[in-house]
Structures
1.
Amino acid sequence: MHAPDDRPFDAPTSHGLSFSGSGAEYFRIWIVNLMLTVATLGIYSAWAKTRRLQYFYRNTQLAGAGFDFRGDPKAILRGRILAVALLAAYHYAFGFSLKVGVVTVALLLAGLPFMMRSALRFRLSNTVYRGLPFGFAGGIKVAYIVYFVPVAIFVLPGALVALMPGNPGVGAIFLLYLCWPLMHGAMKAYQHKHLMAGDQHAAFGLDTADLAKPYVRAFLIGLGVMVVVGLSIGLSVYLARGQKSAAAFAAFLPAILAIVLAYLYMLLMGPYILVRMNNLAWSATSFPGIRITCAMRTWPYLRLQTVNVLLTLLTFGLFRPFAVVRTWKYRVAHLSVDAPDGFEQAVLAARRPPAAAAGDGIADFLGVDLSW
């Protein structure tokens, strides 16, 4: 191990990530995974996931070295079996009896936040760079604070409908979605604040309110779009009064344009929020001697995803693996790591017991992105 001053004078301190894989290579992995998963009634999906993560991680390079994923497919399979059992219980419990349904919902509310934390621990503890394992040090108490309300929104509506059928007050639980920006920000902060590289803990310089700001900007833009849509429709109705059909149609053109504008807004805001939150979260994450920068841009990312969706539809899904590679390449290419003293001096490897995989299976079934 060399002292910082022993490095070559022109040694770079900032390193960008790169991906050496291709869509054609991943297509072969994807199609085999798909056929074997179907042939085994889903059992092979755990091995398929391991192969997928290994392909993407091993082909992602940082400072001349690749990452790796060392998760046990059998552990992932056990997690997925548990996930299927829990979700089946949720869907059918009230068909057996009210008591069974209430107990099932209570178990889900009590267990899912724990599973979400376990998913983070499993995925990160099995991600390795230069022999250095990553990890997650978030506490269980904070996990319940962060995940309980989102889990409740997922679990409670069906339970309340079964308990109080026909009660209009059941829909009030969906008002909790108004707090989604803060919930999403809290989950992001929890994930990034407790990252580990070897025995080094991450520093994270933002709070929940900071991470919710992209939603605020999106809301203000949406408010402006609503004003424009409302004025356009009002103008159309005013101009169309008492006119013949052709003139009336022409008068309604502003309303048609307003609807198109509203639709474009809905398409744009998802990528905008994703890009802004990723930039904020990763650029605020650092380790001793290491600083991360994420500089994704909304319009290029939107164009990328638009082309991906169109080509996937036109090829009846066969372009899907190429779309995944294109998206991964874009996201990786806009991440950079600054390590002035070199990676070998920034962190020390630390051995930790392997984390359980059950939470990772649960996270996949709920559609939550817990990847690094």
2.
Amino acid sequence: MTSPVRALWRSPAATPPPPRRVWRDWVLVGVLPPLVLLEASLRPEVPWRWGWAVVLVALVPTLLWRRTRPFTMLAVAFGIGTLVSLVVGGDPQLYATAYFLVLVYAVLRWGSGRAMVGGATLVLAGTLAPLLLEPSTPVDLVGGLAVVVTTGSLGLAFRWRAGARARELERMRLLEREQLARELHDTVAHHVSAIAIQAQAGAAVAAQRPDAATEALRVIEGEASRTLDEMRAMVRVLRRSDAPELAPVPGLDDLGRLTSSSPGGPVVSVAIEGDAASVPPAIGAAVFRIAQEAVTNARRHAHGATLVDARVSIDADGVRLEVRDDGETVASARPGYGLTGMAERAALLGGRCEAGPGDAGDLGGGRAGWTVTAVLPRTGWPT
């Protein structure tokens, strides 16, 4: 096999994996049998109409497994359909046969490379088989192939689109992990460096003190230096570049920077309730990054927004961040890469981040707007 064909043959199933079943599957399975029987009763001129109706109704359940077993279901449907065509000596003329195209779409949308190649072979064989029984005009042949090719092209197009989005989401997750690793490294390295300096100073004056203290200080120095070396090695693997970042790690004190807005944009207000000094730097940096992304999204996508309100509450359970705007609520909003990054950052710290339409009147207006909520638990914080 040539290289492109070999690559297609070895390609895995589509990513992300499909849902096993959705509500549309049950609608199809419930609606198609009555439609097949209705068409058979209304078209007495179709040869073997009731026989074909029974076959088509019996094959309807293949739609339930078209995502998890796309090639098997297509093989069953086209194999039985072709076999019946050879037995009765004619091609099915019921329009309900068109639901076979859903199985063709499923193979190219969800199947592996082997399934796609095998499915294309089956469909081609099933399309050309009736020509052995009765002659067909070139127009009919080209028309049938055009419908099949169009269906397959749609499956490939949606497969490529979903794969591209999945890769972009994974890239955003990796970027969030990389950025969080940098911030954690910078924070911990600061404290460990201070420990190493204190240990070195203690070793310098330990001549006037017991030997045990000197040895303890040397152990502290060695452990601190070893920790720094291991952390630098870990972050070096995560970073694409070893160029140092000179900017300090942002925290809760930097939330005030979000209030600066461009002319004509919404007003941003920030409020912090609770003991901000008790929040570790890593948690504070995560809260700042999530609030920054939420405010940026509100400025860009909240149509007609005049106010963006960011509130941070710190209590015994942890930190809760709410960012609300008074813009127009979109009826159906697809999660973007920014929301995925916020959720990933919160999950890495054991919390959660959710976004959705808010409650009307939260900010004193009549519009519900959009609300981003992040909760970071206190588990593991120093007391």
3.
Amino acid sequence: MAASPSGVAPAPDPLIRRAAGAPAARVPRRGRLLALDGLRLVAALMVCAYHYTGRGGVVSASWHASPDRLFPSLYRVAVYGNLGVQFFFVISGFVICMSSWGRTLGDFFRSRVARLYPAYWVALALVTAASFALPVVVRPVRLDEFLVNLTMLQQPMGATRVLGVCWTLWVELRFYVLFALFVVVRGVTYRRVVLFACVWTPAAVLCHSSGNELLRQVVMPEYAPFFVGGLALYLIHRFGSDLLTWGIVVMSWLLAQSEATRGLWGPHPHRDPYVVILVVTAAYAAVAAVALGWTRWASWSWLVTAGALTYPFYLVHEHLGWFVIRVLHRGLGLAPWPTLAVTVAGMLALAWLIHRFVEKPFGPRLKRALKKAGTPGTAALS
């Protein structure tokens, strides 16, 4: 969810060249896949809708009423919004495979660190500050909690998550590590990506019956199919369609819909399992449309901005949005729909500020700092 796509148009090659890991026969035409930027923002807005109008708990406390009473029609749609996370994972598999092609392990490491951490640190500071300003929404963050959250490794440490959405970053980080160790370290090729997908998929299936929690944390059976589907769809985009890669996509979709239905339908009485399957299918279909080149018509320049806003928006929207809702609706008496509109617009504006004044200037600086020859650990990865 955190990568910025820089696309590669497909150039079909013979299967034997792919299996050997050989380079493409023709140099692919490069161009940004703007549709992916738009899809990433759609996924983020789905999650936002769920956090503002599709659940209870702190959300109900901020609205001082259950969202299903304030937004009865929207609520019936928003309860499926958390499937935007699974949508993100399909996109992430596609984008990480694309962006790591032709890069060294060091390049991959530096790009991930520079992309993820600057905006994350700022979002962490903002939510921590807000927890002291309005502790009725979220209790004040302790110093030890803030410090361990700076690492992005608070979840495996068993520490409190300051940003509620950061559990997905822990999932992404594990995917990056697996992909780096088994694919990027030797150079990304068609053969290595296929082998990785064909090993990870059965490992995820068998992991369900292992009873080993450490193995589950590493293999991630509930999320692996979504990443695998994205990886295979990028191979289709780069090399063209074939039975093997489409077989991987179909197998991953079959497993993904089962994981989503079991994990997200049962715990929520207002979800329909058929709708869950439909949303998962739509996510796969949307990324498949990009892979097949059916979205080249989506060439609007504002999609670049949409993609740039997605990650900071995703980081700040949850807790800070609850603060804004409480102030505007309960404090100032603004009606529900205007409150919702102002809150979403305000979070998008804050995301733009973080992108413009944090990510753009400091991301490249952090990457250059990591690349300096005086950093032996980083230089060894190149």
4.
Amino acid sequence: MAGAASGELSPSSTSLQKRDFRLFWTAGAIDGLGTHASVLVLPLVLLGAGYPPGLVGMLASIATVSGLAASPFAGVLADRWPRAPMMICSALVAAAAMGTVFAAVAWGRTAFAHLLAAAVVEQVASACYTAAAHGTVRRLVPPADYPRAIGSLQARDQATQIVGPTLGGVLYQLARWVPFLGDALSFLLTAALVRAVRAELTPERDGPSASFVSDLAHGVRFVWTDGFLRFVMLWAAGLNAVLGALYYHAVFSAQGRGASASSIGLILTFSGVGGLVGALAAPWLVRRLPGALVVAAASWAMVPAAAGLAFTTRTWVYGLLLGAVSFIAQSVVIVLQARAVLVVPDTLQARVGTVLGTAGEGLAAFAPVAAGVLVSAYGGRTVGLGCAGALGLLALYATLRVKYLRADGLEPDEEREPRHIRESVSAPDGGPR
């Protein structure tokens, strides 16, 4: 598991692939730390400048929605343009946006319109970076290592979500502008690390590009008409929404029982640590059990853990149960993501990735509001049981759809699999598969 956490791959990978993957992994880690650090303190800066909480919340919402809305369009560009230059340019644009925020805060000129524009630019640039990164695993990692690589990336992202806010709070104590300077520098370092990747990341072309709208529609249609990808999109969107609702249900219920801020923070820490440990453990589990069994069993295992949240009154038990759900969910996510990377053609990696991501994150964006309204109207126990019921429906859906992950369906389709991937797959003895 330590190897997965540091971005290491199995001995079957070449030294150049290992080097490039480590660079890509580290770039994302630095990017994530800087982003999560500055996201925490931007509302504090605005509140300290006298802006009302409603306006501060509106800035965060607009920035988030802007990134989500830009993602599908960024996916089209990432399937047309060279991926590495697109990631580098996106990181530089984000660095410039955060650089202006650093300068404004350092000089005490925090105009709301400027900070809103900078936040929107940073979110759109990050969406472009993410879109271009979707096809990277396929180029840097042999197919046998997809679960391990995706697990290490998931662990990286979980770790930055845990460490980033704490880092932001520490930097904020030094000076209000330090987190934003750190975020700008993190984007510059990210661009330098991506620039050092030697692998060819330019997407394959299957003929001249159609119109932008046609390419966008093709990505959406490809996901919806492919049974497996449609299953991934619906299952992931449902899971993200339920996990978001459970997350805020735990916070609201604990607060309603008089829990302190530090106790509520402990709940969220347990959730993050559960996701981190789950991402590290999942590749080990996936190597030993069939993917269909992992998806079905883990989907059902989340149900009793979620139901327990409806009956507990102890803060630490909230944290353990929420952490257990996050831990279990990672194994399903890694199985489905690894399979998606394998079956989606290189020419569609970015479009498919952004469609799946937008569907999942878009629905989850309503989870905090829904959890707040439902807890106020019906109480925490009813909402907890409702979330457990929703997870039960998702588990039933997964059980009925695991046919896509059975052994006879795990080999890539020769007509859909790009030639450079087919040629890179070799048997353990080095001979052709």
